[in-house]
């Protein structure tokens, strides 16, 4: 049975990703001649399609089919071998079986080609033998200098030059190329669907590529080349595995610097693929949290489905993106407007009331039984007031300074009336400075002519209220939480003390926190009932007794924590805790930790996880205690975070009112909590691969001026070295 294919990585392990991209990939995008090695003469064969597509889609360079069995195919002269081709060949489409691919790349190099597309399967996706075959292919590509797309891919197209080098049936239709939108993906099947659906909605793609197993060229390298192309303003990506965080971050920065947009659909985010972790924060974070945070940092638009990918890209291709989260809803149905308002609130979009001036401008157009505020209900009567009345309403509301996007919902306006409305909205959309999103809640058969008008203008039409509102939320910037106060940076980490803790064979959590500079309660590890009694007696009041065991991450799960223990109870509680450890078969019990009882405060959790696959470490803060996983009220950032970033993370929590002072309660010591977050974020960066995770739960935050105390700490240790620490 074939072994499942390992997830493709964003970049290969080769050393060519830093080479000049646009120059190297011109052989793919603008080849002078294309040879099709092993082209099939059977018209029903998938490997016959690339030749037909090149001819039908108007590639103007030289085409050289290579097959000794034929003199001519699709009107093109055939050649017995690559060596017989008379003209320059920049690109070779390799249409042979997997075992013949290595030799094909050598032939391509001998013919002077600098790029090749390998369609064949039978490589890393089929097991160890295929992995070895793919490794040899990668080695030959490096040796010859031929840049290889694939193997196991569906190829690519570049519309400006008519290079349609693919076998997907989605290329059977005419392909427009003036949208400025391109696509690169790690799945051939998904890519084919994207190309077909884009064509169906009138969104002609300037470029399209399926990277397959990525033996040489990876998704990031192809994408960076396309971002350098003036024909591309918006780039859609389908990502299955984010293998090189640094390469992905560089791609995102490149797009932002160039004023272009990345829209990314990521799969593999579910808990089924999530690694098992002991910490609370680890269990609440997805595998892709660093990917998501990196994307957000650079303005990448993340979407959840193919329809969102296409719709968001189509709107961005117009050059319009919402400046804020304020939406005005214009509808022919009060019910649709009410649904839209509910969904906007759920997704954090605002529906501001239109100004008195705007309402005065609308009043002559909208009947008295309509609505002028927001949502704007024009009613069916509006269509008796002229062919352009609906468009006039949209233009008026878009002029209101409180509006960042216009969402139009049309219900059963069909037939000729629907076609006229569609034409009016197409003209209107071109005149507005803000995005105009159109939802048409009616059947396809009754709205064919109107939908054709939207398709010709490449304006997406949403079939439900929810689809439109979700797209509006993707196009909007993140919610504004208020400016962070100016905060003093935490003193630098005490380098020698932290370095010593990280170098120890076993990293002691409390000792590491002391080195970092995070406050903790007075603690004593005891191993006898008598020592427990003496340790509690030495405290200023009742104590907290906890089982101490290396493999016990969640002590409360086994009854391993007792709070408010008096001196005369300490010996008995000590015995009960050890009995609980025995019942639950807790290994490696070191004894019982006796701690000072910290007065009640706001309980937070701070978790820091090491960076993986080139992505930075992640620090997470949230509502802590034993119920932290129940509420899942957390916010994350890429480490290290500044004091202002830490404050913004705290401010975004649903529990923020508790920190700010809820219902007359005094405000918590937020600066102390910020300081702890910053210190842990700096520590996990300094730790490099030495720590896999570092978690404080709970951090008890006292009232303002009272500080923040780490009551419990969990340390996950890796095998790698720590990063250098500055003094």
Question: What's the SSE blueprint?
Answer:
Blueprint: H1 21-24, H2 26-29, E1 33-37, H3 49-56, E2 62-66, E3 72-73, E4 76-77, E5 91-94, H4 101-110, E6 115-118, H5 128-144, E7 147-149, E8 155-158, E9 163-166, E10 181-185, H6 188-200, E11 205-210, H7 219-227, E12 234-239, H8 245-257, E13 261-266, H9 280-284, H10 289-297, E14 301-303, H11 306-316, E15 327-331, H12 334-346, H13 356-362, E16 376-377, H14 389-399, E17 405-410, H15 415-431, E18 436-440, H16 448-456, E19 461-462, H17 465-475, H18 495-503, H19 509-516, E20 523-526, H20 529-537, E21 543-549, E22 561-565, H21 570-583, E23 589-596, E24 602-609, E25 618-623, H22 628-631, E26 634-638, H23 643-651, H24 656-660, H25 670-687, E27 691-701, E28 708-710, E29 713-717
Parallel strand pairs: 1-2, 1-5, 5-6, 6-7, 10-11, 10-12, 12-13, 13-14, 15-16, 15-17, 17-18, 18-19
Antiparallel strand pairs: 3-4, 8-9, 8-11, 20-23, 21-22, 21-23, 24-25, 24-27, 25-26, 27-28, 27-29
Helix pairs in contact: 4-5, 7-8, 8-10, 11-17, 12-17, 14-15, 15-16, 18-19, 20-21, 23-25
């Amino acid at each position: 049975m074939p072994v499942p294919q390992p997830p493709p990585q964003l970049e290969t392990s080769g050393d060519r990703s830093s080479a000049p991209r646009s120059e190297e990939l011109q052989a793919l995008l603008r080849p002078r001649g294309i040879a099709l090695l092993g082209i099939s003469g059977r018209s029903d064969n998938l490997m016959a399609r690339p030749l037909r597509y090149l001819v039908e889609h108007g590639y103007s360079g030289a085409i050289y089919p290579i097959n000794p069995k034929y003199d001519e195919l699709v009107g093109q002269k055939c050649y017995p071998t690559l060596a017989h081709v008379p003209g320059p060949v920049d690109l070779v489409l390799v249409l042979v079986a997997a075992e013949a691919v290595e030799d094909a790349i050598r032939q391509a190099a001998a013919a002077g080609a600098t790029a090749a597309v390998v369609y064949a399967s039978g490589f890393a996706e089929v097991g160890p033998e295929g992995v070895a075959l793919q490794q040899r292919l990668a080695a030959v590509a490096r040796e010859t200098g031929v840049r290889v797309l694939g193997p196991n891919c569906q190829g690519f197209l570049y519309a400006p030059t008519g290079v349609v080098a693919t076998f997907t049936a989605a290329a059977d239709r005419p392909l427009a190329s003036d949208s400025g939108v391109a696509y690169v993906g790690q799945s051939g099947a998904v890519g084919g669907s994207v190309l077909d659906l884009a064509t169906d909605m009138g969104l002609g793609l300037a470029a399209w590529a399926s990277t397959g197993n990525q033996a040489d060229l990876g998704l990031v390298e192809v994408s960076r080349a396309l971002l350098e192309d003036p024909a591309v303003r918006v780039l859609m990506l389908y990502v299955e595995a984010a293998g090189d965080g640094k390469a992905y971050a560089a791609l995102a920065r490149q797009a932002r610097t160039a004023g272009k947009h990345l829209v990314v659909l990521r799969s593999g985010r579910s808990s089924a693929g999530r690694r098992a972790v002991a910490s609370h924060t680890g269990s609440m974070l997805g595998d892709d949290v660093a990917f998501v945070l990196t994307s957000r940092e650079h303005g990448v638009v993340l979407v959840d489905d193919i329809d969102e990918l296409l719709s968001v890209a189509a709107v961005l291709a117009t050059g319009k993106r919402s400046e804020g989260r304020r939406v005005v809803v214009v509808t022919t149905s009060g019910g649709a407007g009410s649904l839209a308002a509910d969904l906007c609130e759920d997704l954090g979009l605002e529906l501001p009331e239109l100004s008195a001036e705007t309402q005065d401008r609308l009043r002559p157009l909208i009947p008295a039984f309509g609505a002028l505020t927001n949502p704007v209900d024009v009613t069916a009567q509006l269509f008796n007031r002229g062919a352009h009345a609906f468009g006039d309403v949209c233009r008026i509301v878009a002029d209101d300074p409180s509006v960042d996007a216009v969402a139009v919902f049309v219900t059963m306006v069909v037939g000729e009336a629907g076609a006229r409305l569609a034409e009016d909205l197409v003209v209107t959309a071109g005149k507005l400075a803000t995005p105009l999103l159109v939802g048409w809640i009616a059947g396809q058969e009754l709205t064919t002519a109107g939908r054709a008008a939207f398709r010709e203008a490449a304006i997406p039409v949403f079939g439900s209220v929810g689809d439109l509102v979700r797209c509006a939320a993707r196009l909007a910037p993140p919610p504004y939480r208020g400016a962070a106060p100016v905060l003093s940076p935490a003193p630098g980490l005490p380098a020698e003390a932290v370095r010593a803790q990280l170098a120890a064979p076993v990293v002691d959590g409390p000792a590491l926190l002391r080195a970092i500079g995070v406050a903790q309660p007075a603690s004593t590890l005891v191993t006898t009932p008598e020592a427990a009694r003496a340790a509690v007696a030495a405290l200023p009041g009742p104590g907290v007794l906890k089982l101490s065991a290396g493999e016990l991450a969640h002590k409360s799960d086994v009854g391993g924590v007792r709070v408010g223990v008096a001196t005369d109870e300490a010996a008995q509680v000590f015995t009960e805790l050890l009995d609980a450890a025995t019942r639950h078969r807790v290994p490696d019990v070191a004894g019982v930790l006796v701690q000072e009882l910290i007065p009640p405060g706001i309980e937070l959790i701070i978790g820091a996880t090491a960076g993986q696959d080139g992505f930075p470490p992640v620090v997470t803060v949230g509502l802590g205690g034993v119920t932290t996983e129940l509420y899942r009220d957390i916010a994350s950032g890429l480490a290290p975070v500044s004091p202002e970033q830490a404050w913004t993370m705290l401010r975004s929590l649903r529990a923020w009112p508790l920190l700010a002072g809820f219902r007359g309660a005094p405000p918590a010591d937020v600066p102390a909590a910020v300081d702890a977050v910053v210190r842990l974020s700096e520590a996990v960066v300094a730790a490099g691969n030495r720590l896999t995770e570092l978690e404080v739960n709970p951090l008890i935050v006292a009232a303002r001026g009272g500080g923040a105390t780490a009551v419990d700490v969990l340390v996950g240790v890796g095998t790698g070295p720590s990063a250098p620490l500055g003094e």
